[in-house]
């Protein structure tokens, strides 16, 4: 299952097999970047491929509106403007971190833009092989 934030990227949960003494199937979060290429000049970022069998849906603005008790148009505008502002900052070589509550931080250090997921986010997805999921996230 995945969520698309238009203009920024897609968050998804993927299942992967890892072999050790045993074979583990691990669920872990990933982030696939979709920022306009002009914003990413001089930046490197990890290439993440979300498998085709993962269902990706756009951000549910109505649900977010109900949860925040803000009008739908306000929520949509805030999300769009925030993504535009972050893209503008990247384009102008401002390397600010973009925090997602309970998920992680999109940050740029030494011209590498990457998503770092919070440990609790990874643990919440994978309860059996948490340490493997943490190592590979």
UniProtKB/TrEMBL annotation:
GO terms for cellular component: microtubule organizing center. InterPro entries: CCD81, CCDC81_HU_dom_2. It comes from the Eukaryota. Pfam families: HU-CCDC81_euk_2. Residues 56-128 form the CCDC81 HU domain. This is CCD81 protein. It comes from Ardeotis kori.
